[in-house]
């Protein structure tokens, strides 16, 4: 199990995030423009690891945050749920994410009576990947660099670099041509 090591600063940031920042609108005049960045600032100390500039959409839920690793300019889409505290999710550089994604980090031990315990499996969303709206990632998957996952897809197996994958279960439909990225 991954546990949060609480400090006073973290506790204050956590409360500010949960009670105020999480609910700030993204489209409200001058403030709205900055609310994703503000949420990023408050979440950074809570996360296991975080770059300086990250963006967190409205309504994102992640328990206490200790399972999340975010690289430079990574985004978490609005109303996304990161669920489970027995593994970590790494969100790579410049990852883009639509709304209402679900990132599931663990299964119940379903072979035991009463489902006792959990099995966690890390998830990696590699650099420059793009998840459409309502994508679900199941425990243990890796989304390759520059890969795209179509809206509403459920990813149960690894998606290779540059692939465009869609559906439930997500299958690779085609590959993007290699892109030249300006950082
Ligand atoms: C994945 C995506 C980018 C592909 O776009 P595209 O290259 O124009 O895809 P196409 O329309 O050529 O579709 C290719 C095939 O995949 C299927 N397909 C495309 N998107 C799909 C999806 N989300 N779920 C299931 N199947 C999908 C198409 O039906 C088509 O199937 P076929 O080969 O059997 O005819 C796009 O469909 C998508 O889902 N975009 C996400 C949009 C979004 O969520 N935006 C939020 C902003 S962050």
Task: Explain what this protein looks like in three dimensions.
- The strands form 5 sheets. The chain has a 5-stranded parallel beta sheet, with no helix packed on it. A 5-stranded mixed beta sheet has the order 7-12-15-17-18, with no helix packed on it.
- The mean pLDDT is 95.
- Helix content is 15%, strand content 26%.
- It has helices at 8-19, 29-43, and strands at residues 49-50, 55-56, 68-70, 75-76, 81-83, 89-91, 96-97, 102-104, 106-108, 118-120, 123-125, 130-131, 136-137, 142-143, 148-149, 154-155, 163-166, 171-175.
- It has a single domain (8-175), classed as Hexapeptide repeat proteins (UDP N-Acetylglucosamine Acyltransferase, domain 1, 3 Solenoid).
- The longest helix has 15 residues, at 29-43.
- A hairpin with a 4-residue loop joins strand 17 (163-166) and strand 18 (171-175).
- It has 2 helices and 18 strands.
- With 183 residues, it is α/β, with parallel strands linked by helices.
- Bound molecules: coenzyme A (COA).
What are the SSEs and their pairings?
Blueprint: H1 8-19, H2 29-43, E1 49-50, E2 55-56, E3 68-70, E4 75-76, E5 81-83, E6 89-91, E7 96-97, E8 102-104, E9 106-108, E10 118-120, E11 123-125, E12 130-131, E13 136-137, E14 142-143, E15 148-149, E16 154-155, E17 163-166, E18 171-175
The structure holds coenzyme A (COA).
Residues 96, 98, 132-133, 148, 150-153, 164, 166-167, 173 line the site of coenzyme A.
């Amino acid at each position: 199990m991954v546990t949060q090591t609480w400090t006073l600063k973290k506790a204050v940031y956590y409360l500010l995030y949960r009670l105020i920042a999480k609910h700030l609108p993204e489209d409200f005049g001058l403030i709205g423009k900055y609310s994703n960045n503000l949420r990023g600032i408050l979440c950074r100390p809570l996360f296991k690891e975080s770059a300086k500039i990250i963006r967190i959409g409205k309504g994102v839920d992640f328990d206490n945050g200790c399972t999340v690793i975010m690289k430079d300019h990574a985004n978490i889409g609005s109303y996304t749920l990161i669920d489970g505290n027995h593994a970590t999710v790494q969100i790579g550089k410049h990852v883009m994410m639509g709304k209402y994604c679900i990132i599931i980090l663990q299964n119940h031990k379903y072979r035991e009576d009463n489902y006792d315990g959990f099995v966690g499996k890390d998830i990696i969303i590699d650099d420059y990947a793009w998840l459409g709206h309502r994508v679900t990632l199941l425990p243990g998957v890796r989304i390759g660099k520059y890969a795209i996952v179509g809206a509403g897809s459920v990813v149960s197996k690894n998606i290779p670099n540059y692939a465009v994958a869609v559906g439930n279960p997500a299958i690779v439909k085609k590959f993007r041509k290699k892109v030249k990225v300006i950082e």
